[in-house]
Write a structure and sequence with these properties.
The chain has a domain of 36 residues. The chain is an alpha+beta fold. It has a four-stranded antiparallel sheet, with no helix packed on it. The protein has one helix and four strands. Strand 1 and strand 2 form a beta hairpin. 28% of the residues lie in helices and 28% in strands. The longest helix is centred in the last third of the chain and has 21 residues.
Length: 74
């Protein structure tokens, strides 16, 4: 089972937990047929702390590279 987004002809947009091969469901708002909408997947990223730590390390590395005129391999 996977969460998919569905849209009906009346413009209602709903998410529903369905099997992967499900193409249509009944709209809970108006009882019309709602078709699967292809959307962007939700991607969980690391916490902001990890991102900030990486950015700070990268900034330090860039300063070092500029000061010494070298490029470090990562």
């Amino acid at each position: 089972m996977i969460m998919h987004t569905f849209s009906c002809s009346n413009g209602h947009i709903n998410e529903k937990l369905v099997k992967m091969d499900t193409k249509e469901v009944e709209c809970p708002d108006c009882d019309q047929i709602a078709t699967k909408v292809i959307g962007c997947p939700k991607i969980k990223t690391d916490s902001w702390k990890s991102t900030r730590k990486w950015a700070k390390q990268r900034e330090t590395q860039v300063k070092y590279e500029r000061k010494h005129g070298i490029t470090l391999q990562t």
